[in-house]
Amino acid sequence: MAAWARQKHLLQALGRDSPLLPRCTPTCVPFSSKAAASQKRAGAQSYPVINGDIPPVCRHVYEANARNSQLCGHRYAELINKIKQGGGESAILRHTQRNKKLLVRERLRMLLDDESFLELSPMAGLGLPYGDVPSAGCLTGVGKICGVWCVFISNDATVKGGTAYPISVKKQLRAQEIAIQNRLPTVYLVDSGGAFLPLQAELFPDKQHGGRTFYNEAIMSAMKIPQVAVVCGSCTAGGAYIPTMAEETVIVDKIGTIFLAGPPLVKAATGEDVSAENLGGAKLHSRVSGCVDHFASTEAEAYTCARHIISSLNFDPVPEDSSEYENPLYDANELTGLAPLNYKSTLNIKLILSRLLDGSRLLEFKADYGTTLVAGFASVEGNLVGIVANNGELTHDASLKGSHFVQLCNQRGIPLLFLQNTASQESVPTNVVKAEEQTNRLKAQAAMIAAVACASVPKITLVIGGCHGGESFAMCGRSFDPNFLFLWPNARVSLVDPHSASENSQWREQHHAHDAEENTKLKKLKKESTAFYSTARLWDDGIILPQDSRNVIGKCLRIIKQQKYKDFTYQTSPVFRMSKQENRHCGVVALGCQMALHCNSYLTEKWEAGICWKSSRK
């Protein structure tokens, strides 16, 4: 009290009544957020228009790119059709006819609003060393439920019985990471047989393996990111922790079960015959153990209940801005001819920007300096964004320009959109002048890398061509935590550009072997650098067609915007589910509570590091 009295006396001596209010407080005239958005959009609509006309001299490059994009598009369509078949016809019949369950996409249609959702990494799990696991055995994405953007993680039991492969775990962890970065409620549709035991060494022991899913669930609950689960199938072994650690859980009668070990293991261990329903069915967990909170007679009722839960979260949906935004002045379908076949087939990046941005308008930053990097302010579907786009090699001047612009956007709270098309550089300079240039470039690129790494605003990366070498770090590659990262089908992801590898002097020196062996290595490099190889291993959040890019980017920006309307607070523990109940059916719950107790230090660490875009940026 004495300290407060001294502070009050000091404030009075300075002529102030409180530490927050000055002696003379100016009168502020309130204005609506809609009016502010309208004024901001009007400002963006006065930005200069980019010239997006394709020069006649570049027509042959455009046509070559278009032919390559057509081939990539056919491959894309083939893989999309393949993953939509799930685990195959027999698995689908078993799932729907014998087990009387809905298919995963039918479940999502009942859960989500009518608006289309953003699916993440649909091609993950194809062509892996242990075989094909379509969509990694689960669908993840971001969609609206009762007007609120939510992350969903839904097991597909037609694929390997819903068991978790290493790629399945990686995909679920990425979805949780997106939920944390963007502070999105998370809904789990659980229908899983647990871990695929033959590959247990690749999905159990390490930090980023299966157990991290449950750790993240506790962390997100403590961060006040709601966790909701619907048990619409088997929840066995590790899968049993997801519903029991969720804040609210719904279970479907007859088909939903939760247990660490199923009836066959109980029979082997104790000799007791017990049905799945009596061991861990809906009635037992809703009436006896208390492991779930809501009993649903049908799947349709369960998803209606889940929607009711989301509506009670006290989340304010992002207000829809009724103001109309401008469409680009140029045809988005022409982007297929602007998607580079290789780095040498790259056309001016402004031709692409003119087909992505509202009104084809860009307020360019340092237009005449470091011209191999284009930076500036623009709008995508009415959302203000900072553009950072490769237009050649990331030179010394371009790197300094990029560093300056990224820090500017971070200071103003403007999300960043990176259009990445980087070139691999010679690791060994051929003369003294090039060595000096490389040294200066390295220092400037380090500054840009640091600026990108430390920027706390949301970042979206779209790889439109090459993702090679160190320049990809400065352009917010996967290791720099972009909120979303997508590829065009023509994109290449590798340390060395396969098209220039054979021309590189160092490559030739290291490969004096026979031509046949060298060709084999080049073919391997080309195969392992494709966008389809990358997305199968979850090095990105999915492949998108060039003509769909504007729609996807606009949706990502709307998703990101939701956290600005929710205050960021955290507590030192998640919601505990019946932590003191002593019941023989509650072993999973007790273990889940013990896991959750370890989250305090993590929360403090992430809060200090600024893992989320602070709510102060409004």
From TrEMBL:
Pfam family name, one: Carboxyl_trans
Record-level GO BP terms: L-leucine catabolic process
Pathway noted in the entry: Amino-acid degradation; L-leucine degradation; (S)-3-hydroxy-3-methylglutaryl-CoA from 3-isovaleryl-CoA: step 2/3
Catalytic activity: 3-methylbut-2-enoyl-CoA + hydrogencarbonate + ATP = 3-methyl-(2E)-glutaconyl-CoA + ADP + phosphate + H(+)
GO molecular function: methylcrotonoyl-CoA carboxylase activity
Every CoA carboxyltransferase N-terminal domain range: 64-325
Annotated ranges, domain CoA carboxyltransferase C-terminal: 324-559
Enzyme Commission number(s) of this protein: 6.4.1.4
Name this protein carries in UniProt: methylcrotonoyl-CoA carboxylase
Species this protein is from: Xenopus tropicalis (Western clawed frog)
